[in-house]
Amino acid sequence: MVEIDSQFIKPEAILSQIGLQPGMQVADFGCGSGYFALLAARITGSRGKVYAVDVQKSVLEQVKKEARLQNIVGIEIIWSDIETVGAAKIPPHSLDMVFIVNTLFQAKNKLAVFTEARRMMKPGGSLLVVDWLPGDTALGPPVANRLDLGKIKALANSAGFVFQKDINAGSHHFGLLFQS
After folding, report:
1. Between helices 57-69 and 35-44, what is the axis angle to 10°?
2. For residue 130, what is the domain's CATH number?
3. Total structural domains in the chain?
4. Which residue of 5, 106, 116, 128 shows the fewest CB atoms closer than 10 Å?
């Protein structure tokens, strides 16, 4: 697993481009240390809900602890494998947004990840995909693990998503916004 230093990816700058609003229902797939989930919970506020989803119980415990320390409400920890459609205990058609940040490059069944996101998404909901830029850089996963943007768009489309726009995700990452 690749650890991401928050200076290389700026959740505030990314989330400011996607229309996240108070009261929204959101899932952060592969939430890791919770950079995006915690910020999203601050934005969505007490009327919203953010599901921090990960397969690693240790990172989920850290997110829960950090939420308590920061007095962040509206965040729910979900232990689940996002590559198993139907595994996450999040109601179907309940989410306004799903984030898949620095997670897809690690997934073996990428289509299942998109399908699981689509299952939970309200009609017209948004899917944010942020991952490492293709090519060889000093940071990030091996080149062989990096994703082809055309393939990501095709997988998202086959799961029922329509590409909306590119998101500026900094110098090491790409960002794509899709709609259900």
Report:
1. 40
2. 3.40.50.150
3. 1
4. 5
